[in-house]
Amino acid sequence: MKHSLACTTLAALLLGTTAIGTHAAPNADTGLYVGGAIGRSSYSLSSSNRVPVPWGGEKSSKAGTAYKLYGGYRLTENFGVEAGYARLGSVSQWSSAGGYSKLQRGTGQAFYAAATARLPLGDAFAINARLGVSRGRVSGENNNWVPTAQRISGSSTGVMAGFGAEYRMTQNLAITADYDYFGKLSKQAKGGMLTVGLKASF
User: 2-201 has which fold?
Assistant: First the structure.
């Protein structure tokens, strides 16, 4: 369901900006832009190796389907600001308490705000970078039974960083490829995502 929602959002963005692309902005290197992307997340769990997977048990998962939606404003050709929402998909790990093991499950997400830098390489290609702050969270089932050192759920604020590239197909529409790292999503979980998507300038 979440994967379908992300795909629908990207499709709507493509259809909605196709018409915009026929009306060139005065300068697409400055001004407002919005985007959406889908890809794969990667989690780092500080206690992921402390409890082995029980015989015959489901394997722990440290990657999931991810997507992000964002918007920003280019103050100049090279610098701007950006804010967005990222959903990093599911994560799970085995934990032990009271002599038995249980699989914790959660879903990561993050809101972020960042300063951006962009370096055009010709008329159509550019590389970019982001540096800012992220408010992350891993939500899931009630896991109060889990020792604090193994609990993956919770929330945290930290530094986020990202980099990527874009290829402009029209004056207003570009294909993007990005990696974003959101730092701590909770006390025990960190996360990032690798995505491809579309960005529309206005």
Answer: Porin (2.40.160)
